[in-house]
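Input (structure):
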């Protein structure tokens, strides 16, 4: 009788033996009736000694697949990533997956609006897309281009039909398109990008700046700029210019044909104490006296805070902060408003001329060093003025194949680049609603520092008078009416505009 090794099981079977028995059993089961099952996981365990029976757990139904313990949340069928991918619509040109810039969406406009809010921010780029071609905007003839310039200079109003059947053969449409691309700028230096000016030092580095070390040439440039600036302001006062921009290297000014008092519209008023009784008033007076005492104590502390230097005999070797620095430290809450929307200043009334003189004589409007040293601020206007140069925005149409679920479809786009002012955006939408049959999308790329110009400064009652006064400012009447709306965007600006069936929706 052979001796068994410790731990040896007589029922142990090699895996190959188990598979052989399973195949043998399955062949024998084929002779069973069609309605009977061939085998179950438990049959193999019963017929093969030593095989542990399979237990599917709480879900004991046949055919239920167990969850893979090594699967990650991203590659499972029920993962949030896959559910979003399956539920997401086709990626349009402005979807987060297709757009090269991060979309900023904070709110959405009402459905079915016949117009969109006035946006006083400057744009650097517009990207229109549509299912209809933009070929009508390509390769303007010399006569059409010349006619467009004449129409702009004469402020010709073009009223197009609601829908144009053959946009490419419409001379009125093509001339009006050229007319809408025109803007006026001073100074004009073709080798330097004059907008935007804020944050442009890196792009302007290495450019030829012959006036940087020539004070006489700088004086000539500033003198010519002052004449152009004064000319624009005179046109504005005469209601012949609706608005214009002054773009310096560190701030931007918007002049609008409306009006000037000094205020900070986005800074909240300090909370006022309630005076409900005589006792409260007495308490308030006591608090005021206490505050004044504290201020006097702070001033004395400032004077005495450096007395220890004298005691040590080093007061002459240590530079004390001047009174201005001390005042700025005390007024740190006001200083904190710099470079924020709350630092916007609104000037209204009859003192505008004082602001004009201030900007002409203010040294901070011109950089003292760096690539923009000695370069006067950029003046942008929708109409001509003394010393201005006529320029046109760059337009380019592209036809691409966009991928959709069923394959590919034609996608047409029109790109406009340059300093895009508010009237240009509205004029282009008037043309596109006729040429694209009331359906298009627009991505609007804003010069962010100018978004704060959408702060409301007019009441509803001032709208009608403003529209009447600007009847001869050179813009289309419907554009003037749109820009005369009471501001609705606050500190934001339009980022996405859509027209569908001749009605607008938008996002900020």
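Output (sequence):
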């Amino acid at each position: 009788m052979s001796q068994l090794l410790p731990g040896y099981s007589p029922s142990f079977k090699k895996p190959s033996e188990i598979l052989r028995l399973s195949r043998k059993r399955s062949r024998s089961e084929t002779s069973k009736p069609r309605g009977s099952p061939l085998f179950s996981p438990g049959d193999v365990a019963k017929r093969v000694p030593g095989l542990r029976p399979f237990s599917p757990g709480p879900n004991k139904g046949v055919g239920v697949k167990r969850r893979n313990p090594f699967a990650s949340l991203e590659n499972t069928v029920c993962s949030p990533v896959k559910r979003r991918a399956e539920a997401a619509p086709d990626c349009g040109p402005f979807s987060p997956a297709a757009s090269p810039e991060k979309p900023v969406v904070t709110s959405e406009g009402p459905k079915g609006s016949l117009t969109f809010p006035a946006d006083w921010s400057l744009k650097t780029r517009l990207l229109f897309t549509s299912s209809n071609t933009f070929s009508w905007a390509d390769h303007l003839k010399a006569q059409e281009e010349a006619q467009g310039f004449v129409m702009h200079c004469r402020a010709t109003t073009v009223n197009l039909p609601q829908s144009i059947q053959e946009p490419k053969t419409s001379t009125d449409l093509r001339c009006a398109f050229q007319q809408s691309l025109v803007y006026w700028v001073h100074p004009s230096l073709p080798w330097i990008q004059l907008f935007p000016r804020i944050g442009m030092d890196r792009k302007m580095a290495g450019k030829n700046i012959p006036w940087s070390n020539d004070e006489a040439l700088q004086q000539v440039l500033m003198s010519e700029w002052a004449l152009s600036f004064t000319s624009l302001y005179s046109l504005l006062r005469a209601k012949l210019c609706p608005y214009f921009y002054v773009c310096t290297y560190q701030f931007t000014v918007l002049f609008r044909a409306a009006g000037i008092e000094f205020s900070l519209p986005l800074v909240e008023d300090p909370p006022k104490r309630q005076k409900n009784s005589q006792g409260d008033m007495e308490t308030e007076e006591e608090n005021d006296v206490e505050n004044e005492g504290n201020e006097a104590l702070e001033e004395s502390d400032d004077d005495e805070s450096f007395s220890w230097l004298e005691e040590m005999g080093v007061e002459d070797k240590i530079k004390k902060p001047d009174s201005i620095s001390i005042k700025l430290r005390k007024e740190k809450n006001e200083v904190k408003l710099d470079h924020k929307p709350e630092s916007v200043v609104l000037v209204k009334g009859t003192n505008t001329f004082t602001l004009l003189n201030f900007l002409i004589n203010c040294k901070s409007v011109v950089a003292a060093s760096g690539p923009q040293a000695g370069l006067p601020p950029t003046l942008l206007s929708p109409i001509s003025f003394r010393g201005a140069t006529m320029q046109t925005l760059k337009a380019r149409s592209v036809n691409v194949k966009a991928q959709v679920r069923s394959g590919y479809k034609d996608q047409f786009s029109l790109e406009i680049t340059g300093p895009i002012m508010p009237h240009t955006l509205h004029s282009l939408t008037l043309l596109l609603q006729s040429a694209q049959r009331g359906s298009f999308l627009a991505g609007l790329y804003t010069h962010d520092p100018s978004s704060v110009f959408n702060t409301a400064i007019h009441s509803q009652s001032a709208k009608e008078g403003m529209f009447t006064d600007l009847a001869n400012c050179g813009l289309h009447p419907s554009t003037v009416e749109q820009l005369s709306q009471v501001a609705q965007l606050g500190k934001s600006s339009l980022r996405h505009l859509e027209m569908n069936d001749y009605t607008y929706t938008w996002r900020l």
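Notes: The longest strand covers residues 407-420. Residues 290-335 form one domain.
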